[in-house]
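Researcher: Quick test of sequence recovery. Tokens follow.
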């Protein structure tokens, strides 16, 4: 699974764990993506989730449209998101081979 897809799934899991409706700036997975991979990368993931009908953005709130059950805790979601984001960052910024 691609890093974008895994991060999108973790974003959805965090939304589910938070009750399905929260302000975007309070989503820790979104902030991790934004910090490590940039605003454009994070926006691309959010836009893709909106287009596929998983989430809706109203004013400054993000709402989960398709509810599901998750077996992870918030801590597990954050750790996995941090690991994926940092590894993706390192892959994007590694020096070229000689």
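Model:
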């Amino acid at each position: 699974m691609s890093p974008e897809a895994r991060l999108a799934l973790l974003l959805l899991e965090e939304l589910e764990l938070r009750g399905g409706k929260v302000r975007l700036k309070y989503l820790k997975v979104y902030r991790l993506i934004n910090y490590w991979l940039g605003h454009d990368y994070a926006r691309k993931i959010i836009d893709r989730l909106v287009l596929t009908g998983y989430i809706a953005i109203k004013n400054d709130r993000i709402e989960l449209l398709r509810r599901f059950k998750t077996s992870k805790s918030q801590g597990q979601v954050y750790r996995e998101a941090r690991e994926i984001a940092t590894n993706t960052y390192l892959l994007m910024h590694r020096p070229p081979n000689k």
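The first helix runs from residue 3 to 17.
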